Amino acid sequence: MNELLERFKQAIIAGDADASAGLAEEIRAAAEAKPDDIFEYLSAAMDVVGGKYETGEYFIPEMLRSAEAVEKAMAVLEPYMFEHKHEQSGVVVMGTVKGDIHNIGKNIIVSALRADGYEVHDLGVNVSTDKFIDKIREVEPDLLMLSAFTTSTKPALIDIIRRLEEEGLRDRVKVISGGASHSAELAREVGVDGFASDVKSSLAVTRRLMGR
Ligand code: B12
C-alpha cells in the first residue's frame, strides 16, 4: 500500500491529474489505506510542491497543476474516506478569507465536516467580511470556520472578529480558524475560539466547541 501511496504522492508533485485520479481509484479499490495515511501523503506532496515553489523550481502554473491533481483524486477518494453520519451535528459557515484563494485544505475540511454530520455552508474563496456576516445572519450557524493560508490574511481575520463584535453576533457563534500558517499565537492575537492545522485536530476542536 505504501508503494501505491508513494506513486500517488509523486503524481501530485508532477501535477499529473490523470495519474493521480487513476491511482486514487486503485487506492479505493484496495481499501487498505486509512484516511490519515492518504492525508499524510497528500499533504507531504503539497509540501514538496511548496518547497519547489520557494526554491524557484516551480512557478504558479506548476502549483495549479498539482492542485488540480489533488482535486481530481479527492473526487474519487472522498466517499471512501468519509463515511457519512446521518444525525445533525450543527450548522457551519465556512470560507477562505478575503485576499486568499487557496481552497484545497478548505475543501477537505468541508468534506470532513459534512461527513461528521454538519450542515456546511461553503462560501468559497476570497470571501469578504460582509459576505460572512450576511450568511451568519441568514443561517445562524453554531460555528464560523475560516481558512487562511497566507500570513497576509491576519488583518482579514481581525476584521471579521471586529465586525462580529460590532454587530452583536460574537456571542452567538464560535469562531475557528485554520490553515498552513496557523499557530496558537496567531489564534490568540486574532481572538478566535479555536484553531487547527489538520483534519483530525479540526474535527476535535469542532467537537470540543460544540460540547460533543
Ligand atoms: C497549491 C498552492 C497554491 C495554489 C492554490 C490552488 C488551490 N486551488 O488551492 C496557487 C497556485 C493558486 C497558490 C497561490 C499562491 N500562493 Co500558495 N501554496 C500552495 C501550496 C503549495 C499547497 C497548499 C495546499 O493545498 N496544501 C495541502 C492542504 C491539504 O493543506 P492545507 O492547505 O494546509 O490545509 C489543511 C490545514 O491547513 C487545515 N485547514 C485548512 N483550512 C482550515 C480551516 C479551518 C477552520 C480549520 C480548523 C483547519 C483548516 O486542514 C487542511 C487539511 O489537512 C502551499 C504550500 C504548502 N505546503 O502548504 C503554498 C502557500 C500556501 N502559498 C503561498 C503563497 C505565498 C502563494 C501566493 C502569494 C504566491 C504568489 N506569489 O502569487 C499565491 C496567493 C494567492 C492568493 N491571493 O491567495 C505560501 C504562503 C506563505 C505565507 N506564510 O504567507 C505557501 C505556504 C508556499 C510558500 N512556502 O511560500 N498557492
Commentary on this structure:
Helix 1 (2-14) packs antiparallel against helix 2 (17-30), helix 1 (2-14) runs parallel beside helix 3 and helix 2 (17-30) runs parallel beside helix 4 (60-81). Helices cover 58% and strands 12% of the residues. The mean pLDDT is 93. The protein has helices at residues 2-14, 17-30, 35-54, 60-81, 104-115, 129-139, 154-166, 184-190, 199-209; strands at residues 90-96, 118-122, 143-147, 174-178, 194-196. It is built from nine helices and five strands. It is an alpha/beta fold and 212 residues long. A five-stranded parallel β-sheet has the order 2-1-3-4-5, with helices on both faces. The radius of gyration is 17 Å and the shape is globular. The two termini are 34 Å apart. The chain folds into two domains: 2-81, Methyltransferase, Methionine Synthase (B12-binding Domains), Chain A, domain 1, CATH 1.10.1240; 90-209, Cobalamin-binding domain (Rossmann fold, 3-Layer(aba) Sandwich), CATH 3.40.50. The protein binds cobalamin (B12). Residues 39, 42-43, 46-47, 49-50, 53-54, 60, 63-64, 67, 99-106, 108-109, 145-147, 149-151, 176-181, 196-199, 202 line the site of cobalamin.
